[in-house]
């Protein structure tokens, strides 16, 4: 099987009936790029920039960030690279940022909420990102978006930073797409409103599942409630994809679910455009997709969202032969 996968490194991720999707990789640092390239990822669907900020005593400088982003963009040689702005807070702390202690940090001051207040820190990251945009195909993504006001505010800051850079004589790409993570139920439910304000969505199921089922993604005690295949999750995912497509935008997924064997046929059937996963999952997922018919996965997805339980959904995918390995 490993040998069969290795042959697919330079092949497209295309179904038996010629529907092409993008299989991208999630990374945390430029050091992950060797694995991305050797596994034939067609893009970076999520670059978690938190690691640049962690394990140190002060904020990373613009220059250091610029070098990291530029390296990833250059090594992808024009293939799409989605870089997420700082998603700190929640469980991830920074010693040099004096964040408030909260009873429910996962519902608290984090990610875009923090960046919209700590604007100097946010602007430094956006400067580094926009400067790096000249070296490849950059897409900027904001995390933990709950309201349209947050999107507008973040985009206004981004535009202001861009004008500042241009005035200073820097080269900035005019084709930088701006998107959001859909990982809060309000955003998934009202996706049609958000779709008018952004270029793309990336569904963050790691958080979307925990918030939708109110089940902490770290808690063993409620792990049985953390259900990727709960019909509510599938319906939210469908709503997000449909809303994007209605506005001519694309929809991806960068949560763990995107690389799972059971999820791939369902997501394909729901119309997902981009699947972002750990690099080692790319070739198995490509192999699976190349055995599937888009038309058949559509029928599967329609049936799945009408079922009552996660077990019924998983069982259906299995019974109908969509797990090909
Ligand atoms: C997610 O929430 O699905 C996601 C990809 O982000 P993270 O795992 O970094 O919270
Ligand atoms: Mg998340």
UniProtKB/TrEMBL annotation:
Swiss-Prot/TrEMBL cofactor(s)? Mg(2+)
Enzyme class, UniProt record, top EC level: transferase
Domain spans labelled PEP-utilising enzyme C-terminal: 2-292
Q: Which reaction does it catalyse?
A: L-histidyl-[protein] + phosphoenolpyruvate = N(pros)-phospho-L-histidyl-[protein] + pyruvate
One GO process term, biological-process aspect = phosphoenolpyruvate-dependent sugar phosphotransferase system
Catalytic center residues: 254 (proton donor)
The record's GO molecular-function terms, alphabetically, read: kinase activity; metal ion binding; phosphoenolpyruvate-protein phosphotransferase activity
Domain of life according to the entry: Bacteria
Localization: Cytoplasm
Q: What is its EC number?
A: 2.7.3.9
Q: Which residues bind Mg(2+)?
A: 183, 207
Binding of phosphoenolpyruvate occurs at 48, 84, 206-207, 217
Which keywords has UniProt assigned to this entry?
A: Coiled coil, Cytoplasm, Kinase, Magnesium, Metal-binding, Phosphotransferase system, Pyruvate, Sugar transport, Transferase, Transport
- Record's keyword annotation contains Kinase: yes
Gene Ontology CC entries for this record: cytoplasm
In the record, the note on similarity to other proteins reads: Belongs to the PEP-utilizing enzyme family.
Q: What job does this protein perform?
A: General (non sugar-specific) component of the phosphoenolpyruvate-dependent sugar phosphotransferase system (sugar PTS). This major carbohydrate active-transport system catalyzes the phosphorylation of incoming sugar substrates concomitantly with their translocation across the cell membrane. Enzyme I transfers the phosphoryl group from phosphoenolpyruvate (PEP) to the phosphoryl carrier protein (HPr).
Please report the name of this protein according to its UniProt entry: Phosphoenolpyruvate-protein phosphotransferase
Name the species this protein comes from. Answer: Alteribacillus bidgolensis
